[in-house]
């Protein structure tokens, strides 16, 4: 960041947002941010508004949000139970929604590992959907940056086969080890698992019991093998390996042994403390923050935030909640830069991205303009690589 005396000619290919409150890593400064060729050129403190600059009227300027785990694309491809939506239309709608929420980089979560038999079956979809996503990206049809997050479900019949269809050219940035065996992790309470599954699928008691038994059998026969193979496949892709719903210290120690450095949604304080002790970044869901607790009855993200055991926020299933939860944390911590880091620099670095998430010169010019209304952030502009997309 240069001195207030520095100025740039905004008529020579330089784009400028001025008269703004710019959220840096450790403080908020009044000034202007300059962009050239899609990259951050400079941040200049002071109240000047050069001719040709956009006057932000004292709004906040934040780095674009980085989303590591969202189920939002799946919601678009199946907006109602048993309703399949055309994939191109779903991807474009998903992309536009995220851009409108200030998310400029996303790791789209897609499940790999299917159960093609029985009442509780779920079918393969990730390979075809990802090809369509990559094709739209190649045609410059997408507003924001998309990477893949493969959610490897170990309780499945086809996980290794499905992972084998991907390679290092598929922009697989994250692979997470998922284990939804009832009775542990997210669903330690099997009654909550039963209510969730029956409510979502419309199973009767007999069908549910068959599904329950199938999952336990798959975990017993294939779970350990699938975990080992998934770790190997993530290395083949060059992807970051993540754990999901760690509950106990023992599970975290196992995660650390796999080389995991990102924990998605630990369910207890015990697991979160173990993550901290093992150098594993802790990610919690924005809906947990906005609702004041977990819908599954697990640990509150706000409790972890108060204990200093929260590093990253994910929107999970509500894209707009990512920015909203950051401002909720800013109020809790009385520290806006610290809160903003949980949705910008911290997720970028945890996913291996060093070219975004801050306003240092040379970084991608991913930016959002925000005004607060009774502590609620209202987005007034979004830029991805210097191009306005919202």
From TrEMBL:
Keywords: Hydrolase
Superkingdom of the organism of origin: Bacteria
Keyword Membrane annotated: no
A molecular function GO annotation: hydrolase activity
Keyword Hydrolase (UniProt): yes
EC number, as in UniProt: 3.6.1.63
PANTHER family per record: ALPHA-D-RIBOSE 1-METHYLPHOSPHONATE 5-TRIPHOSPHATE DIPHOSPHATASE (PTHR43135:SF3)
Protein name: Alpha-D-ribose 1-methylphosphonate 5-triphosphate diphosphatase
Organism from which the protein derives: Cognatishimia coralii
Classification of source organism: Bacteria, Pseudomonadati, Pseudomonadota, Alphaproteobacteria, Rhodobacterales
């Amino acid at each position: 960041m240069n001195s207030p005396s520095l100025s740039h000619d905004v008529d020579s290919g330089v784009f400028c947002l001025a008269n703004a409150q710019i959220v840096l890593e450790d403080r908020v400064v009044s000034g202007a941010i300059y962009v050239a060729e899609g990259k951050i050129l400079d941040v200049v403190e002071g109240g000047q508004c050069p001719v040709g600059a956009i006057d932000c009227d004292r709004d906040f300027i934040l780095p674009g949000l980085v989303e590591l785990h969202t189920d939002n694309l799946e919601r678009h491809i199946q907006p109602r139970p048993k309703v399949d939506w055309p994939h191109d239309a779903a991807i474009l709608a998903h992309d536009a929604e995220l851009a409108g929420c200030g998310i400029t980089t996303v790791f789209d979560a897609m499940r790999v590992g299917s159960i093609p038999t029985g009442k509780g079956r779920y079918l393969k979809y990730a390979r075809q959907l990802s090809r369509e996503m990559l094709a739209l990206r190649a045609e410059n049809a997408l507003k924001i940056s998309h990477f893949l997050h493969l959610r490897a479900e170990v309780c499945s019949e086809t996980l290794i086969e499905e992972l084998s269809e991907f390679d290092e050219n598929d922009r697989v940035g994250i692979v997470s080890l998922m284990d939804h065996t009832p009775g542990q992790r997210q669903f330690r309470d099997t009654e909550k698992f039963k209510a969730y599954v029956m409510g979502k699928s419309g199973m009767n008691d007999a069908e549910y019991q068959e599904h329950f038994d199938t999952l336990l059998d798959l975990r017993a026969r294939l779970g350990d093998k699938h975990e080992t193979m998934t770790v190997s496949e993530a290395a083949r892709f060059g992807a970051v390996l993540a754990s999901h719903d760690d509950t106990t210290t023992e599970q975290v120690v196992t995660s650390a042994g796999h080389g995991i450095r990102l924990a998605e949604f630990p369910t207890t304080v015990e697991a979160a403390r173990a993550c901290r002790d093992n150098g594993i970044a802790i990610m919690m869901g924005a809906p947990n923050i906005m609702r004041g607790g977990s819908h599954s009855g697990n640990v509150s993200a706000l409790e972890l935030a108060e204990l200093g055991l929260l590093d990253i926020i994910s929107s999970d299933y509500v894209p707009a909640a990512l920015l909203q939860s950051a401002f909720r944390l800013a109020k809790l911590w009385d520290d806006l830069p610290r809160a903003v880091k949980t949705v910008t620099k911290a997720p970028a670095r945890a996913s291996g991205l060093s070219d975004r998430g801050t306003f240092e010169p040379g970084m991608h010019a991913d930016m959002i303009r925000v005004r607060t209304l009774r502590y609620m952030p209202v987005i007034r502009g979004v830029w991805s690589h210097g191009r306005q997309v919202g």
